[in-house]
Amino acid sequence: MSGEIDIYGVFVPTLLVLMVAAFVLTGAVRFVLARIGFYKCVWHRSLFNLAVYVIVLWGVVALARA
What's one Pfam family here (predicted)? Predict the structure, then answer.
């Protein structure tokens, strides 16, 4: 994994691109969890969403390093 990605002449940090990808994936996960009613079992929805984001970001970074 390199330090920067060139997008039309603009150098963007790799972590920023991975964080945006994780944010989009987390949005999809949140949508699915809301549709199945999973959030009724969650004590603090915001903390749970943050934890899901961190886990998804870890997975995206792990896949990018492979």
Answer: DUF1656
**CA angle (48 as vertex; 45, 54 as ends), nearest 5:** 145
Query: Is position 3 within any domain?
Result: no
Question: How much is the pTM?
Answer: 0.86
pLDDT along the chain (66 residues), means of 10: 81 93 97 96 96 98 91
Write out the residue range of the structural domain in which residue 31 sits: 14-65
CB 21 within 8 A of CB 60: yes
Total number of domains in the chain = 1
